[in-house]
Batch of 4 targets.
Target 1
Amino acid sequence: MILRKSLIHNKLNRIKLENFNRYLSDEKKLDISKYTFDKIRNFSIIAHVDHGKSTLADRLLEITGTIDKNEKSKNKQVLDRLEVERKRGITVKAQTASMFYKNDYLLNLIDTPGHIDFTYEVSRSLKACQGCLLVVDAAQGVQAQTIANFFLAFEAGIKVIPVINKIDLKTANVEATIEQLTQTLDLKKEEMLFISAKNGINCEQVLDEIVNRIPSPIVNYDKPFKSLVFDSVYDLRRGAIIYIACVDGEIKKGDKVKSFFTKKVYEVQEVGLARPDFRPSNKIQAGQVGYMICNIRNIKEALVGDTFHLDKAKIEPFPGFKSPKPMVFSGFFPEDSQNFSLLRKSIEKLCINDSSVSIAEDSSPALGQGYRLGFLGLLHMEVFKERLEKEFSQSVIITAPNVPYKVKFSNQKLVKFHGTNELVIVNPTLWPEVHNFDETLEPVVSGTIVCPNDNFREVNQLCLSRRGVFESRQEISGDRVILKYKLPLNEIILDFFDKLKKETSGYASFDYEDIFYELSDLVKLVICLNDIEIEELTQIVHRQRAGAISRVLVEKLRDEIPQKQFKIAIQAKIGGKILARENIKAMRKDVTAKCYGGDQTRKLKLLREQAEGKKRIRETAKIEISKDVLINILRKEK
Ligand SMILES: Nc1nc2c(ncn2[C@@H]2O[C@H](COP(=O)(O)OP(=O)(O)OP(=O)(O)O)[C@@H](O)[C@H]2O)c(=O)[nH]1
């Protein structure tokens, strides 16, 4: 697996040290002028996790001589996978690479991220292509991500070449896979390729079919330079390196370019091809795909989907650009509050290479100073956390993740105050008072599940218990079924996928698309200890689920909080209404132990004094939840 972006950074540094000077002093920059648009094919590889996307990419690079086998094994040692990627069996990011084929063609393999958290980026990268290889594992057949990815390609209007992989496996069921592809995606058998990416069987044919079937890009040489940004990485010395697909004109060192989104102007310092190392070229012209370095010092100015064009030229931007929208938010606090400034520096460094993380300062009575960070999805958050721990040795406490909710109001005073009639709430403690809004909305997704027919009942039950709405069921060959549900995002960000796997002995796959907002009866659930609110445990929940969540939380707290000299009342409340309650009894101390003999009046006096003392402490003592208890509760929450 040599093509992984989470690891490109290492690679960039290596290239920088070893080759940077050589490249700069190298007079012989690549001359790619002869690769006119008709000689170019831009394509992606899309697949369900583990169906062989990276293996096929490696094979194509090997066949075209872009990398050799020795280089590959060298890379294999350098590139180790993040644990979260290994655990989930996914690659978060691959890499873009240009290959020369038969001396005639320039084939550009454009990376698409391999996870639903990055669906927007997948759809943007597909916009830079005219075709894609849809890889399907012959032993596993069509899976949820196969379907979701196919439809992204279909919507992008690009040519899809179905490739059935792993035909060498004893468990391969090629006939069933063909049938599933024809039934579900309306693909034709005669269009399918049958390969083993691992053993190289029919892989050269894949290259020929890319040339034969994928159209060359539609371009205009006479118009001023215009390009689509489909990826970016950050290098400490050179700033952001952006990957562009050039559709009009050409660009070379010294030209001035402008970002349509930020309106900022930059001078181009270098352009070139990703092979996959950065190789400078004399220019990039319409139809070609490459990288551009122009001293962008903030990765937030190099956004996927933006249009970079020649300064002062009037152009139409590529449609559909959105700045990244975080959908999962959590508090990040240092395990040792002394380490806050170290945590800040580490987060800043990590964000240099990730424009999609949103950052705001946060503080908590128990956890001290920290941050509230927003991510594209839960996996994105896990990868970020793991990198904080592995690359920066930071131990962090993460509060229960939540999704962004919306509240709508018609009160004109509020509308005037906020300048809008709708607020997005990402921090549950900032949820407004009930009388201050009219409607509440939550993000909902269209989910696709592929599982064995026999598991339908369990899967359906799981989805309904997560407030899912059943939409459709389609039986496909191989005794499997495709199910569609509308599911609230909040219900699937935590353990939904794990539960789904458990219910189906690992045979179900899940993917989602289209995040949209729907009306929902949401309430703020507050946890109190002796009437004092524990902010870190405040959550926004659906009214229907509030009772069950409350009971679980108060029981967990009852088991975790140590006894004190006085009684502790644990309550879960919505507004003033108590939904669940547990008490922790006061510690008993035998104050009469020293009274020998039968002086009953003295014993009673001591007991009376003890009871009054406890009452006094209970009224005055501020119960603070300790950090350890909070960590345990949050761990169990996950
Ligand atoms: N037997 C066999 N195994 C293969 C073949 N292609 C890939 N594999 C294996 O399948 C596993 C997954 O392959 P990858 O190339 O990592 O799959 P991927 O689609 O890139 O996975 P992600 O990028 O992590 O989603 C690896 O263990 C490969 O060695 C093949 O043609 N035959």
Note: Residues 1, 47, 49-55, 90-91, 114, 165-166, 168-169, 196-198 surround guanosine-5'-triphosphate (CB under 6 Å).
Target 2
Amino acid sequence: MISFQNVSKRYPGGVHALNDISFELGRGEMAFLTGRSGAGKSTLLKLIALLERPSRGQVLFEGRNVGKLARRQIPYLRRRIGVIFQDHRMLSDKRVFDNVALPLMIAGVSFGDIKRRVRAALDKVGLLDKEKMYPPMLSGGEQQRVGIARAIIARPPVLLADEPTGNLDPALSAELMDTFLQLNQSGVTVLIASHDLELIKRLGQRVLVLDDGRIVDDVGRRGGPGSGDSDG
Ligand SMILES: Nc1ncnc2c1ncn2[C@@H]1O[C@H](COP(=O)(O)OP(=O)(O)OP(=O)(O)O)[C@@H](O)[C@H]1O
């Protein structure tokens, strides 16, 4: 589904954020990306979401080199990737309901369907009672959850999340991780950058460890050594 082949990213100004990264994330797989602040986690996610371009190497999405996509193919790729970033970029003059509904409105879904799906998504993140509020009236954690509802509403096959539990208390973090697990069990490919090692450990999923722009560990890959579900 997602494949990095010897990818490096150097930002203007000289920072080498990623150095010769190679890994694959299969269709329907779930993995965490962890590592110190500045290790390159956000950069890696941005390269998948086409928010940044690699300086070297290739990022493949469903077998296609995203660096070589024609301009008109980019919106198609973006629709297939749900993105949850730390700055959730809500429209502050639009109600929670409309913020979440936005991707479906753009896709031309009927209002009846939009209403049903927005309510289901808000229910999933525990915000059904806040649909008429405006984002500035919500706490940081609540705004983050609106961002999650908006990212999953169009049912994209891939979900990328950058520190999705950063502003949440432990109970809510655990609940949200359960939501990600459920989405993964329904076939969504999920990649989550997180510092929350306790939570990550408890979930028993694959973990990619980044250090100074390199992958220094890849633990618990499905079908990989020690996973218990390989053929051998
Ligand atoms: N737009 C940019 N321009 C220049 N340097 C950047 C830019 N974005 C990130 N960097 C640098 O690239 C390196 C990796 O940053 P990145 O945000 O990917 O790390 P991270 O692992 O996500 O960190 P954190 O956990 O703090 O979010 C850092 O040294 C950072 O300063």
Note: Residues 226-232 have pLDDT under 50 and may be disordered.
Target 3
Amino acid sequence: MPTESTESHRIADVRITPVAFRDPPLLNTVGVHEPYALRAIVEIVTDSGLSGLGETYGDAGHLARLRAAAAQLTGVDVWHGNEIERRIHTALATDTSKAGHGMSGMVTGSSTVHRVLSPFEVACLDIRGKAVGRPVSDLLGGAVRDRVDYSAYLFYKWAGHPGAEPDDWGPALDPAQLVAQARRIVDDYGFSAIKLKGGVVAPEEEVAAILALREEFPGHPLRIDPNGAWSVETSIRVGKELDGVIEYLEDPTSGIDGMAAVAREVAMPLATNMCVVAFDHLKPAVKADAVQVVLSDHHFWGGLDRSRTLGNICDTFGLGLSMHSNSHLGISLAAMTHLAAATPNLTYACDTHWPWKDADDDVIVPGALTFEGGAVAVPTGPGLGVELDRDALARLHEQYLACGITERDDTGYLRRFEPDFDPTAPRW
Ligand SMILES: O=C([O-])[C@@H](O)[C@@H](O)[C@H](O)[C@@H](O)C(=O)[O-]
Ligand SMILES: [Mg+2]
């Protein structure tokens, strides 16, 4: 007879470790990635001896909020998510700053409490899964797929960081170089969808890049995301030029009103991870019919459970669902994979920055997550199914201390080489 466990698992200790990992000079509309990307690794330990992992942004402002929240969590049972959220609310009650959100100013309207809550919620789910011997996907309603498809994420990029040797990706500054980048990434990982980070060069050049990708990859769904860099007029023009070529157009312009104006004129779905980034954005966006696909992201939607709620709301209103990413490590990939597996209407291939990090730059024991045919198999062991590699954590923490970066600042980094660079949108 199986034994029932009613044992409580109270939070006894929370450790937050900032880490840095090497990142190539990937260009976007606000600047360029610095040589290191930052993350914070959250470990919760319970009085019953279990531990769970979470991963989030590593910017100084965010770290300070994580630490303020962590200090309030001792003694709470990991099953009591409402109490955890209440305490985090209280801890951040007087925090009105928008600084240190980890996205170089590209996503500013999301909920601070939800950003801070997210890694704690993921770590508690990891512990709950271990306590009952079930994968996190089961705690989210059960996996509806055993493999999660991800998308190739192409970037315009420099050959290498200024002053350093070119990296082994080389430059990607024109259509031919982007096609070569796509070929390598698709061959290496097997991705069957392709996203291009746009908003970097003139829209005509980015359209030419998409058309070149279409020719080279006739069967791959394509997307382009200029992060709101285009005016409404430019977005409509590009949207008409790419009609029938891309599966969705992501954040061509800023704001719900701007997106709604574009949506009225273009045929393809508009997607966003910029104008709908919190629950109170959903009503105005639906009312204005501004977007047809929302990119979820558990790092700013308050964790895995709330991201599933977002999925249900999208389903209710007939919105498509995809998944956004930022530079991330293996704990986040595990969480994204469990969430996507347990979200029936997440039917688009999810974004991931995974191929851009060095294989040996991670904090988890290698081997738990592998790409095959562009997909990651959903871990079936208890919890998230990934284990912390303490030596690697220490090494990436040393890298954090040594690299001197404490806030992601794509604009500041680009301005070191192009002092007149102005990211103000719309750029075109
Ligand atoms: O990593 C980047 O440069 C991306 O531009 C990222 O910061 C965005 O948040 C993201 O991937 C997006 O889809 O907007
Ligand atoms: Mg985006």
Note: The CA atoms of residues 29 and 200 lie 5 Å apart.
Target 4
Amino acid sequence: MTAYGSQEMSANLTRVLMRRPGASLTSADHAKWHYGPTFDGEKAVRQYQVFASLVEKSGAEILWLEDNGDGLADAMFTHDPSLMTDHGAVILNMGKPLRVPEPALHEAAYKKAGIPILGRITSPGTVEGGDCIWLDAETLVVGRGVRTNEEGITQLAELLQPHGITVLSYDLPLWHGEDACLHLMSVMSPLSSGLALVFAPLLPAAFYQLLKEWGVAMVEAPADEFHASNGLSLNVLPVRPNEVIMVSGFPKTKAAMEAAGCTVTTFDADALCIACEGGPTCLTRPVLRRAP
Ligand SMILES: NC(=O)NCCC[C@H](N)C(=O)O
């Protein structure tokens, strides 16, 4: 099956590229990878298994990349090295130097699956998938920050423009610095086409105004849980519109989404997501999202 296509963020998750963590993660030097004090490789692998079973249970087909000990601990965050469009995959170029080899793994997986490659971002351009959010199928919003630069955004816009896609870009704050991970998806998680979970204080102001103009209803992520989770309380994965998977331990954020009509499933991820700075969306690269 070669099905692909995804120019939206919350339609039914039908096919997804994921990498099971193994030796590369369990042997990772936490200081080198900027992993926090709750990092525990073996526990992270167990927590990942629970997460993967939730994705499987949602009905999505998983295309697996395996961790064969290549040392790429962050490669489990498959959201970032490529972007899927209705016209094929865009192979991105990483802003975090330790992650530079990862896009080649995605390219090989897509070729094996018979999914066409639409194009590539090349140096000095950088774009990471976590900085890209489809507002609608013709509008991609990109966060310019430590991981995604102006040259990368220009390349991406040129690649997508012939397909009728407009790229809008906004500056992200530095927040915890160049070594930490702050993507556009760190401050906004789409829940359905008209609803998003946001941490407004870190949203680019003009992007916040655009969301209001487009009539996107915003659920505010409670600040205390956002800070306590290193921002991961906000990173939630829709498997269907208004049906999401999130990290456990943040009841106020969960309740806020439920009050907005969402069904929320949680899993424990202190050693995996909180420590490694990436949540459920970051652990998945949607290959096909299909409207219900
Ligand atoms: N899309 C995301 O926010 N991905 C999280 C990636 C975390 C990883 N440790 C990184 O620093 O790139």
Note: The mean pLDDT is 96.
